[in-house]
Amino acid sequence: MDADGKGSGLHDFTSLMGSDKKVLLKALPDKLPGVIRPQSSETVVKIWKDFDEIYQLLGCPSPTEEQITGYFTKAVNWVELFLSLGGKCMGYEKAQITPYIHAIVYHVPKFMRIHNGIKKFTGQGVEKLNNDCRRVHLQRSNKWDAAKDVLLVGKRIEHLAECKRTPRSYKKQNSSYWETGIKDTRSKRVRISCEEVADSQEPLDIDVDTISVQEIKELLKERGVKTRFRCLKKLKKQLIESLRNKENEAPNSQQ
Question: Which domain of life is it from (predicted)?
Fold first, then answer.
């Protein structure tokens, strides 16, 4: 993106921040058909959607034994589906099965049984709390007791986590304002940009307000004035200037 906020047309890789990964897993698979190879399109879309299901099971706070077993089955099937494209598409070979994928399939289910889920080990909450505490300490606290400020912020976030702010009720006083009232108000404003015609100027021989665009162009052509304007307002202004200039030139030529 350029400095003016418009697209530059140049694309590059970027890191996914916050919930961007979840948005990507939800929105991307349905947009892949028609973009990738038709021979492997259906399989690739299924790989993305199955991984989203695995990711959702991975984040269960207190998974049951049935959910853990289902997670393991889905993870194994996902790896087999991934490897089914080996030799057909680049990037789906056995060498792409990293230790992370091995841990997801064979070690994570064990940790889920031992610790009743692995959601508690995520560091997102700690990072968020650290950012909130730092902001409060630097911007809102008196900096005398930093530990107290951090604990208060943490407890406040904990108590308000499930609360939702109620929007303020709004009652429209005048329902017709945005249809007619605002137009009347703006029409009464003094427009600084409007040019007033001096009273000392004599009236023109031609009634400019009643002639059409084509007639104005013909009059300008007769006076040797070339124009590229199409707007009636601009054409009228140019014709008036031409007529005024002609009136001013006549007395000078007589002298």
Answer: Eukaryota
